[in-house]
Amino acid sequence: MMELFSKRLQIRTLVLLVCALLVSPVWGAVSACAEDGGMMTVAATDEDLEQIALSQCVFTIYDGEIYWMSLTEDELWEYAQYLKSELNINTAAAAGILVNLEFESGFDSEKEGDGGAAYGICQWRGERWTQMVSFCLDNGYSPSSMEGQLAFLVHDLQENYIYPYDLIRMVSDTWDGATDAAYYFCAYYEAPSDPDAESADRLALCDILYYPALVELEESF
Q: What would the pLDDT profile of 172-183 be if each residue is shown by its tens digit?
Protein backbone atom coordinates (compact mmCIF):
# COMPACT_ATOMS: atom_id res chain seq x y z
CA MET A 1 0.00 0.00 0.00
CA MET A 2 3.00 2.35 0.03
CA GLU A 3 1.91 3.80 -3.33
CA LEU A 4 -1.16 5.21 -1.58
CA PHE A 5 1.12 7.45 0.43
CA SER A 6 3.56 8.71 -2.21
CA LYS A 7 2.96 12.24 -0.93
CA ARG A 8 4.21 13.04 2.55
CA LEU A 9 1.62 12.98 5.30
CA GLN A 10 1.88 16.36 6.90
CA ILE A 11 -0.16 19.18 8.43
CA ARG A 12 -1.89 20.91 5.54
CA THR A 13 -3.76 24.17 5.31
CA LEU A 14 -7.45 24.34 4.50
CA VAL A 15 -6.66 25.55 1.00
CA LEU A 16 -4.53 22.50 0.26
CA LEU A 17 -7.17 20.22 1.74
CA VAL A 18 -9.91 21.67 -0.43
CA CYS A 19 -7.71 21.39 -3.52
CA ALA A 20 -7.01 17.74 -2.73
CA LEU A 21 -10.69 17.04 -2.33
CA LEU A 22 -11.58 18.71 -5.58
CA VAL A 23 -9.29 16.41 -7.54
CA SER A 24 -10.47 13.28 -5.72
CA PRO A 25 -12.91 11.06 -7.64
CA VAL A 26 -15.37 10.91 -4.73
CA TRP A 27 -15.52 13.10 -1.65
CA GLY A 28 -19.10 13.02 -0.49
CA ALA A 29 -18.26 11.61 2.92
CA VAL A 30 -15.63 12.34 5.52
CA SER A 31 -14.38 9.75 7.98
CA ALA A 32 -13.70 11.57 11.22
CA CYS A 33 -12.71 10.75 14.75
CA ALA A 34 -15.85 10.75 16.84
CA GLU A 35 -15.88 12.42 20.24
CA ASP A 36 -16.15 9.05 21.95
CA GLY A 37 -13.31 7.54 19.96
CA GLY A 38 -13.39 5.47 16.81
CA MET A 39 -14.41 6.48 13.33
CA MET A 40 -17.70 7.62 11.92
CA THR A 41 -18.90 8.89 8.55
CA VAL A 42 -20.48 12.31 8.35
CA ALA A 43 -21.46 14.62 5.51
CA ALA A 44 -18.63 16.85 4.33
CA THR A 45 -19.26 20.48 5.25
CA ASP A 46 -17.21 23.66 5.31
CA GLU A 47 -17.12 23.32 9.10
CA ASP A 48 -15.61 19.82 8.81
CA LEU A 49 -12.86 21.08 6.55
CA GLU A 50 -12.17 24.07 8.75
CA GLN A 51 -11.98 21.83 11.81
CA ILE A 52 -9.27 19.70 10.20
CA ALA A 53 -7.23 22.73 9.20
CA LEU A 54 -7.49 24.54 12.52
CA SER A 55 -6.74 21.45 14.60
CA GLN A 56 -3.54 20.78 12.61
CA CYS A 57 -4.23 17.06 12.93
CA VAL A 58 -2.56 14.44 10.76
CA PHE A 59 -4.78 13.23 7.93
CA THR A 60 -4.80 11.45 4.61
CA ILE A 61 -7.24 11.00 1.72
CA TYR A 62 -7.97 7.41 0.79
CA ASP A 63 -10.57 6.08 -1.61
CA GLY A 64 -12.29 9.46 -1.79
CA GLU A 65 -12.62 9.90 1.98
CA ILE A 66 -10.68 11.91 4.54
CA TYR A 67 -9.22 10.08 7.51
CA TRP A 68 -7.70 12.03 10.36
CA MET A 69 -6.50 11.48 13.86
CA SER A 70 -6.78 13.50 17.06
CA LEU A 71 -3.03 14.20 17.08
CA THR A 72 -0.75 16.73 15.46
CA GLU A 73 2.48 15.52 13.88
CA ASP A 74 4.45 16.62 16.95
CA GLU A 75 2.13 14.73 19.31
CA LEU A 76 2.13 11.61 17.14
CA TRP A 77 5.93 11.65 17.02
CA GLU A 78 6.29 12.31 20.75
CA TYR A 79 3.92 9.55 21.88
CA ALA A 80 5.29 7.00 19.42
CA GLN A 81 8.88 7.67 20.41
CA TYR A 82 7.98 7.39 24.09
CA LEU A 83 6.28 4.01 23.61
CA LYS A 84 9.08 2.71 21.40
CA SER A 85 11.72 3.68 23.93
CA GLU A 86 9.95 2.59 27.11
CA LEU A 87 8.48 -0.64 25.74
CA ASN A 88 11.35 -1.52 23.40
CA ILE A 89 8.99 -1.91 20.45
CA ASN A 90 9.13 -0.97 16.78
CA THR A 91 7.15 1.59 14.80
CA ALA A 92 4.43 -0.86 13.77
CA ALA A 93 3.81 -1.86 17.38
CA ALA A 94 3.61 1.77 18.48
CA ALA A 95 1.09 2.49 15.72
CA GLY A 96 -1.01 -0.46 16.84
CA ILE A 97 -1.15 0.81 20.42
CA LEU A 98 -1.81 4.43 19.49
CA VAL A 99 -4.72 3.68 17.17
CA ASN A 100 -6.42 1.92 20.08
CA LEU A 101 -6.04 5.03 22.24
CA GLU A 102 -7.66 7.01 19.43
CA PHE A 103 -10.73 4.84 19.57
CA GLU A 104 -10.85 4.54 23.33
CA SER A 105 -10.57 8.22 24.20
CA GLY A 106 -9.34 10.37 21.32
CA PHE A 107 -6.25 10.90 23.54
CA ASP A 108 -8.32 12.77 26.10
CA SER A 109 -6.70 11.91 29.43
CA GLU A 110 -9.69 13.32 31.33
CA LYS A 111 -12.36 11.50 29.35
CA GLU A 112 -15.05 9.70 31.32
CA GLY A 113 -17.02 6.99 29.58
CA ASP A 114 -19.96 4.71 30.23
CA GLY A 115 -21.65 7.07 32.64
CA GLY A 116 -18.49 7.74 34.59
CA ALA A 117 -17.49 4.09 34.97
CA ALA A 118 -14.43 4.39 32.72
CA TYR A 119 -11.65 6.96 32.65
CA GLY A 120 -8.62 8.16 30.76
CA ILE A 121 -6.84 7.33 27.54
CA CYS A 122 -7.53 3.60 27.87
CA GLN A 123 -10.90 3.96 29.59
CA TRP A 124 -9.72 2.04 32.64
CA ARG A 125 -12.43 0.74 34.95
CA GLY A 126 -12.76 -0.39 38.54
CA GLU A 127 -9.57 -1.70 40.08
CA ARG A 128 -7.53 -0.83 36.99
CA TRP A 129 -8.65 2.79 37.29
CA THR A 130 -7.67 2.73 40.97
CA GLN A 131 -4.29 1.23 40.08
CA MET A 132 -3.68 3.95 37.50
CA VAL A 133 -4.44 6.70 40.02
CA SER A 134 -2.23 5.09 42.69
CA PHE A 135 0.65 4.63 40.25
CA CYS A 136 0.49 8.25 39.14
CA LEU A 137 0.35 9.62 42.68
CA ASP A 138 3.20 7.35 43.81
CA ASN A 139 5.39 8.47 40.90
CA GLY A 140 4.75 12.20 40.93
CA TYR A 141 2.25 12.40 38.09
CA SER A 142 -1.20 13.88 37.99
CA PRO A 143 -3.66 11.01 37.40
CA SER A 144 -5.41 13.14 34.80
CA SER A 145 -2.23 13.86 32.81
CA MET A 146 -1.27 12.29 29.50
CA GLU A 147 2.27 11.83 30.79
CA GLY A 148 1.15 9.93 33.87
CA GLN A 149 -1.32 7.73 32.04
CA LEU A 150 1.20 6.78 29.35
CA ALA A 151 3.69 5.91 32.08
CA PHE A 152 1.07 3.73 33.76
CA LEU A 153 0.23 2.05 30.46
CA VAL A 154 3.89 1.10 30.03
CA HIS A 155 4.04 -0.20 33.60
CA ASP A 156 0.77 -2.09 33.27
CA LEU A 157 1.83 -3.87 30.09
CA GLN A 158 5.21 -4.83 31.46
CA GLU A 159 4.01 -5.97 34.88
CA ASN A 160 0.40 -7.12 34.52
CA TYR A 161 -0.26 -7.83 30.84
CA ILE A 162 2.86 -9.73 29.84
CA TYR A 163 1.10 -11.93 27.27
CA PRO A 164 -0.16 -9.10 25.02
CA TYR A 165 3.06 -7.19 25.68
CA ASP A 166 5.14 -10.10 24.37
CA LEU A 167 2.90 -10.47 21.33
CA ILE A 168 3.15 -6.76 20.54
CA ARG A 169 6.94 -6.76 20.96
CA MET A 170 7.29 -9.58 18.44
CA VAL A 171 5.38 -8.03 15.51
CA SER A 172 7.29 -7.20 12.36
CA ASP A 173 7.76 -3.57 11.39
CA THR A 174 5.31 -3.84 8.49
CA TRP A 175 1.68 -3.07 7.69
CA ASP A 176 0.73 -6.57 8.83
CA GLY A 177 2.74 -6.11 12.02
CA ALA A 178 0.96 -2.84 12.78
CA THR A 179 -2.50 -4.35 12.40
CA ASP A 180 -1.44 -7.41 14.40
CA ALA A 181 -0.31 -5.12 17.23
CA ALA A 182 -3.57 -3.18 17.05
CA TYR A 183 -5.51 -6.42 17.38
CA TYR A 184 -3.41 -7.78 20.24
CA PHE A 185 -3.78 -4.58 22.24
CA CYS A 186 -7.52 -4.43 21.65
CA ALA A 187 -8.18 -8.12 22.29
CA TYR A 188 -5.91 -8.73 25.27
CA TYR A 189 -5.42 -5.37 26.95
CA GLU A 190 -8.72 -3.61 26.34
CA ALA A 191 -10.42 -7.02 26.28
CA PRO A 192 -13.88 -6.28 24.81
CA SER A 193 -16.50 -9.02 24.70
CA ASP A 194 -16.19 -9.31 20.90
CA PRO A 195 -12.60 -8.38 19.98
CA ASP A 196 -12.99 -9.22 16.30
CA ALA A 197 -15.88 -6.79 15.87
CA GLU A 198 -14.40 -4.17 18.18
CA SER A 199 -11.01 -4.18 16.49
CA ALA A 200 -12.13 -4.05 12.84
CA ASP A 201 -12.22 -0.25 12.49
CA ARG A 202 -9.05 0.09 14.56
CA LEU A 203 -7.14 -2.21 12.24
CA ALA A 204 -8.42 -0.33 9.21
CA LEU A 205 -7.38 3.08 10.55
CA CYS A 206 -4.00 1.71 11.60
CA ASP A 207 -3.48 0.43 8.07
CA ILE A 208 -4.75 3.57 6.32
CA LEU A 209 -3.32 6.28 8.56
CA TYR A 210 -1.42 5.52 11.75
CA TYR A 211 1.34 3.25 10.49
CA PRO A 212 2.05 5.05 7.21
CA ALA A 213 1.98 8.42 8.99
CA LEU A 214 4.63 7.25 11.45
CA VAL A 215 6.74 5.76 8.67
CA GLU A 216 6.63 9.07 6.80
CA LEU A 217 7.54 11.02 9.93
CA GLU A 218 10.50 8.76 10.68
CA GLU A 219 11.81 9.12 7.15
CA SER A 220 11.86 12.89 7.63
CA PHE A 221 14.13 12.72 10.68
A: 999 999 999 999
